[in-house]
Amino acid sequence: MDYGLQFTSSRKFLSISPIILYLLASFYTKYDAAHFLINTASLLSVLLPKLPQFHGVRLFGINKY
């Protein structure tokens, strides 16, 4: 996406939208512990791969070719 350039407007949007959804979900579940842990795990699973340090990194050989 965006020829590998970091921090373009589309990448910023795709990084901020899960954070907003996370905050809204946490607020509407009244910070219930079970929902909070599930939401945090899903947020991290979405945001960590978007970091520049993970560009081109393949876990467990998935999408190697």
Automatic annotation (TrEMBL):
The keyword Lipoprotein does not apply. Coiled coil: none annotated. It is a multi-pass membrane protein. Keywords: Membrane, Transmembrane, Transmembrane helix. InterPro entries: ORMDL (IPR007203). The keyword Mitochondrion does not apply. It is found in: Membrane. It holds the Pfam family ORMDL. It comes from the Eukaryota. GO terms for biological process: regulation of ceramide biosynthetic process; sphingolipid metabolic process. The chain crosses the membrane at residues 12-28. GO terms for cellular component: endoplasmic reticulum membrane. Ceramide-sensitive subunit of the serine palmitoyltransferase (SPT) complex, which is also composed of SPTLC1, SPTLC2/3 and SPTSSA/B. Belongs to the ORM family. Plays an essential role in the homeostatic regulation of sphingolipid de novo biosynthesis by modulating the activity of the serine palmitoyltransferase (SPT) in response to ceramide levels. When complexed to SPT, the binding of ceramides to its N-terminus stabilizes a conformation that block SPT substrate entry, hence preventing SPT catalytic activity. Through this mechanism, maintains ceramide levels at sufficient concentrations for the production of complex sphingolipids, but which prevents the accumulation of ceramides to levels that trigger apoptosis. This is ORM1-like protein 2. It comes from Neovison vison. The lineage of its organism: Eukaryota, Metazoa, Chordata, Craniata, Vertebrata.
